[in-house]
Design goal:
With about 190 residues, the protein is mostly helical. Helices cover about 80% and strands about 0% of the residues. The protein is elongated, with a radius of gyration of 20 Å.
Length: about 190
């Protein structure tokens, strides 16, 4: 959800500029002002502990960063000759966004989506560890770490194994994002070697 909304807002801000760009970036700045976990706890306090709190927290935390990245990528594409030629030829903003901008920022969208997935796992695990995320009888790696921490001196694997699985899952998603970036950016020297 946050990737779709951030893509739309970022492209609109990059194409239109002016008040749309300023307003969307000030909202992003406002959301950046809060530390991620503190904002998650605030959302969980307002909404109540559970899956809804985790989803809302993930959405609110990942949205501003992606908005900024997509706006910046759009600003780079908007000043290219093919976009100018399309605008001079009579293409409207929506057509330019869909036919020219979106395909050219697709790599950034894919990489940011994988990054958002790893942030989502981290936020959900942290919220569940603190008791604000997934509540029993549902299970989460964060809640498993929290339950296992009570037996850390006697049975350390009860907390270490779910923690290691969470770390491995986040690492694997980040590695997929790096692979996507290498595959989708032909100008990058790493993909040439």
């Amino acid at each position: 959800m946050s990737t779709l909304l951030a893509t739309a807002i970022g492209i609109a801000a990059g194409l239109m500029g002016g008040p749309v760009e300023v307003l969307s970036m000030r909202i992003a700045d406002g959301l950046f002002a809060f530390p991620a976990m503190l904002l998650s706890i605030l959302v969980a306090t307002i909404v109540g502990a559970g899956e809804v709190a985790a989803i809302a927290s993930i959405f609110i935390i990942t949205l501003p960063l992606m908005m900024r990245v997509f706006r910046g990528a759009t600003r780079d594409v908007v000043h290219r000759d093919f976009v100018t030629a399309s605008a001079v030829g009579g293409a409207r903003g929506l057509r330019i966004a869909v036919r020219h901008v979106l395909p050219n920022i697709g790599g950034a969208v894919a990489v940011q989506a994988t990054y958002a997935a790893s942030i989502a796992m981290l936020i959900e695990g942290g919220l569940s560890f603190l008791g604000f995320g997934v509540v029993p009888p549902a299970a989460s790696l964060g809640s498993l770490v929290q339950e296992g921490s009570a037996y850390l001196t006697v049975y350390p694997w009860l907390a270490l194994v779910p923690g290691a699985v969470l770390a491995a899952a986040i690492l694997s998603v980040n590695l997929v994002g790096d692979g996507l970036r290498d595959a989708l950016d032909p100008r990058d020297e790493r993909s040439m070697s």
